[in-house]
């Protein structure tokens, strides 16, 4: 086995189209970062959600960043350790997905070379995790309810629905009518402006756990004004890209919960720091998903073991999102809980056959 870094641009079919206020997709594109050194093969996942979540970073943009810059720098650095990402991050801070893919692969390499595991290196202990169901925007209320009934057979402990202007109050009302007092979240993905505040007065009546990212990414004054108006906590998601922004929002009471996304923050280490800094400000956190494929999802589950992550994760069963995942065994949900399969407790075990089938482009860099 040659010492090399290989990038694999993959495209995986989803079980159903996933629509948010910013677009719809029917397949998941990602870039797998594979490092081979001295007989060890390690994997990371760079996992932007093309066309969604108000990000200009697509899988193709991430591919170009890795090919044109980051992998050459990684090989030139020679250490092949996660610290490389921390040292380089500021030079291309917008390319968080690419950095997360490299960092994940470097952690995987380190735990194998040191005969340890992700949880041990993170100083966390495995435990069952509560998980919540996330649903997109559907053509009708009936289809939303029907889909929710189907997935709720796995016992998810929380329901989150996507909303946008014109698809908000009635879907929330339908969820309450069908599923009673189950913890309920609505997620706007930046879809609203200050002209829509009366909508949130109505949503505030449904006893929601949170309203996720109602306004634009940089509209801290708008979020502050809205939070003063409603009791439901506002959760930052798209706005939670770096601590300085989150700290400013907390100081002005523009957000009371933060959704932690490893990919958006650039890796496990910056995500962990965000959790701990939020906790120091008495702000609850939880681990969200883009959604990622199995490698990225397992990284999220490892970090969700952090005792300061006090709310159910958005990471769901592999079959909820994908016709076939790229890990073996897949992630499963039973009675609303995820237990990381024993095969993955130390590190993700990938399904190379599936990766091969879904690969649309590959590039190798020897070192």
In short:
With 367 residues, this protein is an alpha/beta fold. The chain has helices at residues 59-77, 83-88, 96-113, 118-122, 141-151, 169-179, 197-203, 220-229, 243-251, 262-265, 268-280, 294-304, 318-321, 352-358, and strands at residues 4-20, 23-37, 40-46, 129-130, 133-135, 159-162, 184-187, 210-212, 234-236, 257-260, 285-287, 337-338, 359-366.
Present the secondary structure layout:
Elements: E1 4-20, E2 23-37, E3 40-46, H1 59-77, H2 83-88, H3 96-113, H4 118-122, E4 129-130, E5 133-135, H5 141-151, E6 159-162, H6 169-179, E7 184-187, H7 197-203, E8 210-212, H8 220-229, E9 234-236, H9 243-251, E10 257-260, H10 262-265, H11 268-280, E11 285-287, H12 294-304, H13 318-321, E12 337-338, H14 352-358, E13 359-366
Parallel strand pairs: 5-6, 6-7, 7-8, 8-9, 9-10, 10-11
Antiparallel strand pairs: 1-2, 1-13, 2-3, 4-12
Helix pairs in contact: 1-3
Describe it.
There is one protein chain. With 367 residues, the chain is an alpha/beta fold. The protein folds into 2 domains: 4-117 and 352-366, 2-Layer Sandwich (Enolase-like, domain 1), CATH 3.30.390; 121-344, TIM Barrel (Alpha-Beta Barrel), CATH 3.20.20. The protein is 37% helix and 20% strand. The chain has helices at residues 59-77, 83-88, 96-113, 118-122, 141-151, 169-179, 197-203, 220-229, 243-251, 262-265, 268-280, 294-304, 318-321, 352-358, and strands at 4-20, 23-37, 40-46, 129-130, 133-135, 159-162, 184-187, 210-212, 234-236, 257-260, 285-287, 337-338, 359-366. Strands 5-6-7-8-9-10-11 form a 7-stranded parallel β-sheet. The chain starts with a strand and ends with a strand.
